[in-house]
């Protein structure tokens, strides 16, 4: 569930202001509700944070038009700061029509008059502006010049260009050094970035305790992007004791700032009732805000709620639309579930070929889809039965740690279905799936102990395993427990 972009790329100083879709009876493995440990996402989030704000009293007293008029009057007297602020206005479209060419021209004038921040903003345009202006090697050169002049945004950005190999060769050590330089100069966003280096062990030795401390410092100093990873560290006990309530506070801070992942995380907390009162309707509202910002995780989760009419009115068509929006971004679970819908003919017209295509696409990031591919070929539902191909898919799923793939391999070798019966392989696959908490694996191992099939007969162990499966709501195991307790 935790997938957060960490590093913040900026271009100057500060803003100017102001249910299971299908049952196993359908021959399709149902998709369980995901709960994933935190993982660090790819680095290099682009975030515009431009220019120095004008004095607070002026900003309150003057509207945009009046402010632009004043800046132009001052610029006519060769006021370097006014010229810089006009460049910023044209870049951001604040009080004037956005015009990157004019912004570049004003920044160049300001740079020639000694405004280092203008040099940083020119580099920002060359890195992240319109495609016609982009020139990564030149952006790197200008960030480097401004960084050596002491501009801490340029130091931060230069570090990230070294980190990502933009306009230069990748160099994590130099990236770390420049980010640390910006942190030492007092840039809170660089402090958050430095924390991420320590958290991931990039360019330096991994140090979770130091990472947590730096995120806390960054958050105190106003770096809003520190709240999300800090929440993760408190939720999962990274770099110190776990504290879900503190984690929730940080997630809510991120959500209130409009961070899509912050909104998503708060949504999952309300859906699960983890540390907050369970409220699926409120969860849906958080998912909606994140989904509207294009976050595929939330598009998928909200789609699932619409599909089942939980927390929202039942709306299968909206569910499909949201699944497709997430799938278009390559989100594996959405691709898999679309495959399930097309295979079973739920909501959409049944189309096995399309289902298999979705499963194949999903399998790149979501190994559960490999099991669904295996099931399609072993059952011959809509395709020619191909046991060898099914086994190959199940084995690929098992190799990636997918428990349902392991369960099906266990059953195949247990029964000798189209392969030579192999008790050693069957038990090994079932034990591996059981260690991941799969209830059917518990049930099958219990059956082996009860009947003495490939395991030494032991009714006590059988009952223990049946009970574990029954506790997860597995119906055959519930019946087995009742039978053995008679």
Automatic annotation (TrEMBL):
Spell out the SUPFAM superfamilies in the cross-references: HCP-like
One of this protein's Pfam families, by short name? Sel1
Gene3D superfamilies referenced in this protein's UniProt entry, alphabetically: Tetratricopeptide repeat domain
Matches recorded under PANTHER family = ERAD-ASSOCIATED E3 UBIQUITIN-PROTEIN LIGASE COMPONENT HRD3, SEL-1-LIKE PROTEIN
Name of the featured protein: Beta-lactamase HcpC
């Amino acid at each position: 569930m935790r997938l957060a972009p960490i590093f913040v790329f900026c271009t100057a100083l500060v803003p100017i202001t102001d249910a299971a879709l299908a049952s196993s009876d359908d021959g399709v493995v149902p998709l369980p509700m995901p709960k994933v440990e935190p993982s660090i996402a790819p680095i290099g989030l682009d975030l515009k944070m431009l220019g120095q704000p004008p004095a607070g009293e002026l900003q309150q007293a003057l509207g945009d038009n009046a402010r632009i008029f004043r800046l132009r009057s001052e610029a006519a007297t060769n006021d370097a700061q006014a010229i810089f602020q006009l460049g910023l206005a044209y870049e951001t479209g604040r009080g004037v029509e956005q015009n990157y060419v004019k912004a570049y021209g004003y920044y160049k004038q300001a740079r020639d008059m000694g405004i280092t921040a203008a040099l940083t903003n020119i580099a920002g345009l060359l890195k992240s502006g319109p495609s016609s202006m982009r020139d990564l090697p030149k952006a790197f050169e200008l960030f480097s010049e401004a960084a050596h002049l002491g501009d801490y945004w340029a130091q931060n950005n230069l570090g990230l260009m070294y980190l990502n190999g933009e306009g230069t060769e990748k160099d994590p050590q130099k990236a770390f050094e420049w980010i640390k330089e910006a942190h030492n100069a007092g840039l809170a966003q660089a402090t958050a970035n430095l924390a991420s280096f320590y958290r991931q062990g990039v360019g330096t030795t991994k140090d979770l305790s130091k990472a947590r401390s730096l995120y806390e410092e960054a958050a105190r100093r106003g770096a809003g992007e520190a709240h999300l990873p800090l929440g993760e560290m408190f939720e999962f006990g990274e770099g110190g004791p776990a504290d879900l309530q503190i984690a929730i506070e940080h997630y809510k801070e991120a959500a209130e700032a409009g961070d899509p992942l912050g909104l998503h995380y708060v949504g999952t907390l309300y859906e699960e009732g983890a540390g907050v009162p369970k409220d699926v309707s409120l969860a849906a509202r958080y998912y909606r805000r994140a989904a509207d910002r294009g976050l595929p995780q939330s598009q998928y989760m909200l789609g699932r709620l619409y599909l089942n009419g939980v927390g929202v009115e039942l709306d299968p068509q909206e569910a499909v639309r949201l699944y497709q929006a997430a799938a278009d971004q390559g989100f594996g679970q959405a691709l898999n579930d679309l495959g399930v819908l097309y295979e079973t003919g739920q909501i959409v017209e049944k189309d096995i070929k399309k289902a298999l295509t979705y499963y194949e696409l999903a399998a790149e990031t979501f190994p559960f889809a490999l099991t669904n591919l295996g099931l399609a070929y072993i059952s011959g539902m809509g395709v020619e039965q191909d046991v060898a191909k099914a086994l190959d898919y199940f084995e690929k799923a098992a190799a990636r740690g997918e428990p349902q793939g392991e369960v099906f391999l266990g059953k195949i070798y247990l029964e000798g279905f189209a392969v030579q019966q192999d008790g050693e392989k069957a038990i090994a696959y079932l034990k591996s799936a059981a260690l991941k908490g799969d209830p059917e694996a518990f049930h099958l191992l219990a059956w082996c102990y009860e009947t003495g099939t490939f395991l030494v007969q032991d009714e006590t162990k059988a009952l223990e395993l049946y009970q574990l499966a029954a506790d997860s709501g597995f119906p055959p195991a519930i019946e087995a427990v009742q039978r053995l307790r008679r």
